[in-house]
Amino acid sequence: MEIRLDAIGIVSADIAASLRFYALLGVPVPDFDATEDHLEATLPNGIRLMWDSLDLIKQLDKNWQSPVGQRTGMAFHCGNAAGVDSVFSSVLAAGFKGSMEPFDAFWGQRYAQVVDPDGNKVDLFAPLG
User: What is the mean pLDDT of residues 13-25?
Assistant: First the structure.
């Protein structure tokens, strides 16, 4: 039996805003109808990124509570150091927030963090040099 990571799910209070955010990071987001509670995008590596509305999650799990603090993280490779700066600027220009300005990290990467509409911190990185 083969076990492999197939999908990553995001519980979102505003799926439309979340799709706009992740499109800025290169995710091939699907068309969205505001009546939908679940949708998926297949990334180039085959992994699916899924969005579920708060309403759907609360229907599926009556005891569900919104987590407090960062529990998981996603990191997007931006190609090169200039790509990190460019993506960071694009995200902020679109009205979303940054939590860490781009910098040259001691571990050999250009690194920054942005915040998705649901408060999840998302890493942007690329190797230095």
Answer: 96
